[in-house]
Amino acid sequence: MLSKFKDESRSEKKIEVKNQYIVFLINDQEFGVEIKQTREIINFTELTEMPSTPDFVKGVINLRGEIVPIVDLYKRLEIDKKERESDDKIIVVEIAGNLIGMQVSEVKGIIRLSEDNIGSAPGLTKQYKRDFIEGVGKLDDRLIILLKLNKVLTQEEVEEISELEV
Known about the structure:
Organism: Halonatronomonas betaini
Number of helices: 5
InterPro entries: CheW, CheW-like_dom_sf, CheW-lke_dom
Order of helices and strands: HEEEEEHEEEEHEEHH
GO cellular component, one term: cytosol
CATH class: Mainly Beta
CATH architecture: Beta Barrel
Radius of gyration: 19 Å
CATH superfamily: CheA-289, Domain 4
Protein name: Purine-binding chemotaxis protein CheW
Number of strands: 11
Shape: globular
Oligomer: single chain
Strand content: 35-45%
Largest sheet: 6 strands, mixed
GO biological process, one term: chemotaxis
Distance between the termini: 72 Å
């Protein structure tokens, strides 16, 4: 009878699902992206600038034989940039099967958040910028803006920058 009681108590426990996010800074604001979408993090490196690209595309890099476009998240999110480029990092992500680098100030680490710790984007955010935001993660006394990478760049933009030729 005791074993039956233990089994019932296990089935009543709510399993809490937590997603992992890479947390990074743009200036002093913390942002996060789901770790499932990221490939790697590299130091900012010399870029090859490309003519006739959207203003938020900084250029391209050669990453072990693969050409990877670099998106300036400062410009894309309309955040004034503090001068720190030499210390910046690039988070290489995969969007719609394409590798794209996202320039950020600093990578802080990896966190786990349950859905209970994610709130919706504030109503004060401009509508098109709100589409970029999955939600706001609450971790202790920190608020982390969680980005939807598949919305930060439209499918057309991803296709356009993935076709850049060097």
